[in-house]
Design goal:
The chain has about 300 residues and is an alpha/beta fold. It folds into two domains: about 120 residues, Ribosomal Protein S5, domain 2 (2-Layer Sandwich), CATH 3.30.230.20; about 170 residues, lpxc deacetylase, domain 1. It has seven helices and 20 strands. The strands form six sheets. A five-stranded mixed β-sheet has the order 2-3-8-4-5, with no helix packed on it. Helix 1 crosses helix 5 and helix 5 runs parallel beside helix 6. The longest helix is centred in the last third of the chain and has 14 residues.
């Protein structure tokens, strides 16, 4: 049996938002089975709880935002990717500002914090969304398709004119261990020439070399260089996992993307969930062994049971 998971205890994380530039404290609380991932703004009265679901997504420009207007939580994708990557299904997140802390621009800090916090198994089976037929979305020359597979596979292609990126392609077969090692550490990135334009649009006010890969017209400006030669496409896969987690269940499917972004990921989720014949929700106990084994955690992260 593959059980649902939550965190072992309450933990608070303080950092800045990459877009808002505001200092914020995020508090993650254990939650019961079938609770899902829920966010609540604590910096103003009577804020409604935001369920992390593809249908509650508002803006998708340069990040994924839950909710709209004042009651919104921006840049949730890296945290959501790590929760999915560690098989954590149930968390109540309280946040006293508009945006999840960016940390180092990857999911590595969240992995470390959750490792120290501990992971607990709950007495309820995980549920998987199993894709039965292909669903595709297209916007201009960008596209994404989700189709049947025994476990989660992401086939990602990115295309940039920058000489340090060019065309990058990676196929990632999901497991908790490979997520931690190969995807979770990949940082977000941006071009120096776009900084002024983005800031005028109210974005990347908190961006720096400490929380993003920054490229001038020719090279990576970060003194430490890249963590992986193909860190850019690995980060795209991190974003994809975070956005696809908003389906609300573990996923058994192959997702192929070409020049995708948060908007395309959300369109894919919405179209899939709106196509009843394209999927079914099943208990983990009815799945093939391969899909279940993907959620085995390394010994250092093995969950306690309660």
């Amino acid at each position: 049996m593959l059980y649902q998971r939550t965190i072992a205890k309450k933990i608070s994380i303080t950092g800045i938002g990459i877009h808002s530039g505001k200092k914020v404290t995020l508090t993650l609380n254990p939650a019961p089975a079938d609770f899902g991932i829920q966010f609540k703004r604590t910096d103003f009265l009577n804020a409604e709880v935001l369920v992390a679901n593809a249908l509650t997504v508002g803006a998708t420009e340069n990040n994924t935002t839950l909710g709209e207007g004042e009651n919104a939580v921006h840049t949730v994708e890296h945290l959501l990717a790590v929760l999915y990557g560690l098989g954590i299904n149930n968390v109540y997140a309280e946040i006293n500002g508009p945006e999840v802390p960016i940390m180092d621009g990857s999911g590595a800090s969240f992995v470390f914090i959750l490792k120290e916090t501990g992971i607990s198994s709950l007495n309820r089976s995980k549920k998987f969304l199993v894709v039965l037929e292909p669903v595709k979305v297209e916007v201009g020359d960008k596209w994404a398709i989700i189709e049947p597979a025994d476990k989660l596979i992401i086939d990602s292609t990115i295309v940039f004119t920058h000489p340090q990126i060019k065309n990058q392609h990676k196929v990632f077969e999901f497991s908790c261990e490979s997520f931690i090692e190969d995807i979770g550490r990949a940082r977000t990135f941006g071009m120096l020439r776009d900084v002024d334009t983005l800031k005028r649009r109210g974005l990347i006010k908190g961006g720096s070399l400490d929380n993003a890969i920054v490229l001038d017209d020719y090279k990576v400006m970060n003194p430490e260089g890249l963590r992986f030669q193909d860190e850019f496409v690995r980060h795209k896969i991190l974003d994809t996992i975070g956005d696809i987690s908003l389906i609300g269940h573990e996923v058994a499917a192959k997702i192929t993307t070409y020049k995708s972004g948060h908007n395309l990921h959300n369109l894919l989720c919405r179209k899939l969930l709106g196509t009843e014949s394209a999927y079914e929700i099943v208990s983990a106990s009815s799945l093939q062994k391969e899909a279940v084994q993907a959620f085995e955690l390394p010994l250092a992260l093995a969950p306690s049971f309660h």
